[in-house]
Specification:
Elements (H helix, E strand, L loop, with lengths): L2 E8 L2 H12 L4 H8 L10 E5 L6 H9 L5 E7 L2 E10 L1
Antiparallel strand pairs: 1-2, 1-4, 3-4
């Protein structure tokens, strides 16, 4: 089993919720990631590439391997901050 996903990492739940609203209103997830995410993946629009269960923090695995593809999940709190997460593929 594998998945592909992209995410946005910010330092507050409030900012995470605000960005989720912007994306739900039609803004491009990748563009929002480039502008707002503090993760190095922001330069790739938040793309995390392809990964298997157990390669990411447990909070990510739960959303990525149980949630629907194409849906933005979050805020998801981890040791790194607050994330918006979009599953882009799974197989």
């Amino acid at each position: 089993m594998w998945a592909t996903a992209r995410h946005i990492l910010v330092d507050s739940e409030e900012k995470c919720n605000d960005l989720k609203i912007v994306i739900a209103s039609g803004a491009d997830f990748g563009a929002i990631a480039k502008e707002n995410s503090s993760c190095p993946s922001s330069s790739e629009g938040g793309d995390l590439g392809k990964f298997s269960p157990g390669q990411m923090v447990p909070e990510f695995d739960k959303a990525v391997f149980n949630g629907d593809v194409g849906v933005v999940y979050g805020p998801i709190k981890t040791q790194f901050g607050y994330h918006l997460l979009e599953v882009t593929g799974r197989g």
